Amino acid sequence: MMALNQQQTASQPTGGLMPSGPAYHERVKARQRRGRRWAIIFQAAMLSGIIALCALLFNILNQSFGYVAIINNIDPAELAIDGVPLNELSKDQLVGILEANVSAGLMRRYENDMPFAQRTSESVHELILERVVEPQVQATWGLFESAFARGSVFADAEERFPGSEVYFRSWLTTSFISKSQSSEPLRAGVRTAIFGSLWVVAITILFSFPIGVGAAIYLEEYAHRERLLNRLIQTNINNLAGVPSIIYGMLGLAIFVRILEVFTSGAFLGIGDQSTANGRTIISAGLTLGLLILPLIIINGQEAIRAVPNSLRQAGFGLGATHWQVIWHHVLPSAMPGILTGTILAISRAIGETAPLVVVGASTFIALDPSGPFSKFTVLPIQIYQWTSRPQDEFRNLAAAAILVLLVLLLTMNASAVLLRNHFNRGQANA
Amino acid sequence: MGPSSGFYSCKKENRSWQTTGGEAARNRELLNANREEPLGFRPAAHTYAGLPAEVFNEQGEIMTQSAPVAQAAISAESMRGPVAGAESTGETVVGGGPQFDLRRRPRVAESFIQGFLFLCGAISILTTLGIVYVLGRESLLFFANEEVNLLKFFGGTEWQPAIGRFGIWPLVTATLMASLIAMAVALPMGLCIAIYLSEYAGQRTRSILKPILEVLAGIPTVVYGYFALTFMTPLLRGIFGRDIVEIYNTASAGIVIGILVIPLVSSMSEDALSAVPGSLRQASYGVGATRLETAVRIVLPAALSGVAAAFIVAISRAIGETMIVAIAAGAGPNFTFSPFRAAETMTGHIVRISGGDLSYDSIDYNSIFAIGLLLFMMTLSLNILSQWIVRRFREEYE
């Protein structure tokens, strides 16, 4: 406003309708300069947002691949029999190597777990790697260094870890996805965590989708907005959406894990894990996350239902349909794309949630796949958190690889949300 | 085209009439006219399967004239309920006579459904009550402990439950410091991005940039935590020196929280800025204002309530943010005002304590609920404040 006022005073002396004069032109130029300067600042802000995103992605990719220096307890070449390398030996020869290198007690334990006659030669090979070769990661380098400073990587490895084997390793491999958790970074995988995430999310969907959509229908189609109770519900949902996720975790800990322990541990059905029968199970986690994303599903659902034109409802009523028939046959089908999109976005939020699950009590180390809703669990974000908190570099690499898995999972979900929306929109346009 | 084929295909067809709203409305009037002969007169012997043909006969003229099969299908569809019900309560139908009003019929299934939907809505209330009950109950148990009292809780500057020190300040200052740093990053950046997107960027640019911000918003917080620890912390240590910046520090966590909430600030602010009517901008350009002057002196003040609400929601989000501080800010309450020192926030403390083996009814277990209650009240009051600001200061434009 001030600039405009000054402009007018500058125009006074000339007396004309339009301002003019050298002072005025100076002022206009200064204003335009300022405008250009700030336009650049605004663009720079946008750019730095994008740079932050790029830095984040670069950082994760950088940590997921790169050179590692490894020292083997016994060089695999020494284990070769008659010049045949280790990975081409027959099963009997492999068992022989294992017997020669580990204690008899350990052999007996393996035999008890699963007789060697039934084991495949791959699994015996793996046992040899685990117990005999015992590769130890000494140091790891990022992708950037590995690509642009190969020489210094090798020199550094030679100097600090003489005798180590340096090779390029992708931490994200198929065996990383298909293997379960292990304390050895070279053999650790995220299989258990992926299954845990899928189980938890399945429970979350089963719980929160019907209830969320039901609540959205109630608030949009049935509730009289002036009634105090309904206003209360609406305000309450808006406020719940802003409650920090960790508070939901504490709610889950107190309600699902402790008070409802009989149900969430599976004890009431007599199934569940009897040895550690407590409520820190998949179903507790799923219900907790369900409560967490419920407000999001309701708010999105309400918006989708509100967007359905009123003429549709009136036409339905006019034809003599009951309230529920109008909702079920007309309102819901045309609101469905919006509802589903909102739900998928809410679920991808649930997949990435970590804090509430730490509080509810995800297990930190689980090597067995979850067997049902009453088993102990770990999920991908928890796994990432655990690995990130370890001081050793190689666990950071594992965490980066697990983050890539998580991001791909989320990207797939978001892409499917977009596709779903487009599919439904096209369907409506064609009809 | 037989009527029954129309009936059976109704599911498939009933989408098509959405596009012919005008016809549907006309047809509805005609149907209502037909209502003068109530459906209740239908002899109870009529079967469900025979219905479509009859509907078609009754309104045959209308149907064949204005809209072919689709409308017949719809009317059959919508009448299925009432007449199917009439079968079961045959007596009422016969006794009802001409005064019988379909709308007054008690519909058990309908009210059952409505009741169920109400329960769905009520679950949200139960959630809130659950939160208040759980946090309140455990906090009361915490304060009932003879070692603890409110004065110690709000007066002490040391939090060591193991040796009976229960001063909340170390956790609160760390939380506020991380949030303050986050806001110093997120508010100017978010607002600049919002102004850029709403006032400067073209349609095409916006359609590319907005999804990028959405990606930023969709990344899980644990990933941001990893980013803070493995990228931001080394960066800060490189800039300020390894002696000054500790491995775990609030500055790095705060900056990354700031990056996390940028999309929140920018999208909420942009919504508010875009909602300002174009006539205001045109008027501003009309009197000779530059684009910057229009954006900052006309549009921004008009959208101020929305922007302020976005800021407050962002603060609330930053205070409640957990994983970033749990990973990058340090483990162990530390009463410090230096952003480069390790310090534990309220959320970080809750995660660390509950991540370990926690025995129920111990002082540790109760203490995290007391911290949770404080956190809940802080974020709730900020959220209510933001809603109040939107309601109170919103500029309404026609």
Task: Describe the overall structure.
The complex is a heterodimer of chains A (431) and B (398). With 431 residues, chain A is mainly α. Chain A folds into 3 domains: 2-13 and 20-62; 66-178, no CATH class; 191-430, Orthogonal Bundle (MetI-like fold), CATH 1.10.3720. Chain A has helices spanning 2-11, 22-64, 76-79, 91-101, 104-113, 121-133, 143-148, 150-160, 174-178, 191-222, 228-240, 245-259, 261-264, 282-306, 310-318, 323-352, 355-360, 380-389, 393-430, and strands spanning 65-71, 136-140, 165-170. A 3-stranded antiparallel sheet of chain A has the order 2-1-3, sandwiched between helices. The longest helix of chain A is centred in the first third of the chain and has 43 residues, at 22-64. Chain B is mainly alpha-helical. Chain B folds into 2 domains: 3-104, no CATH class; 150-393, Orthogonal Bundle (MetI-like fold), CATH 1.10.3720.10. Chain B has a two-stranded antiparallel ribbon with strand order 1-2. In chain B, strand 1 and strand 2 (165-166) form a beta hairpin. The longest helix of chain B is centred in the N-terminal third of the chain and has 37 residues, at 108-144. Chain B is globular and about 70 Å long.
Secondary-structure blueprint:
The complex is a heterodimer of chains A (431) and B (398).
Chain A: H1 2-11, H2 22-64, E1 65-71, H3 76-79, H4 91-101, H5 104-113, H6 121-133, E2 136-140, H7 143-148, H8 150-160, E3 165-170, H9 174-178, H10 191-222, H11 228-240, H12 245-259, H13 261-264, H14 282-306, H15 310-318, H16 323-352, H17 355-360, H18 380-389, H19 393-430
Antiparallel strand pairs in A: 1-2, 1-3
Chain B: H1 3-8, H2 10-13, H3 21-34, H4 51-58, H5 60-66, H6 69-88, H7 90-96, H8 108-144, H9 150-155, E1 159-160, E2 165-166, H10 169-200, H11 203-218, H12 221-240, H13 250-274, H14 278-286, H15 291-302, H16 304-320, H17 323-328, H18 346-355, H19 363-393
Antiparallel strand pairs in B: 1-2
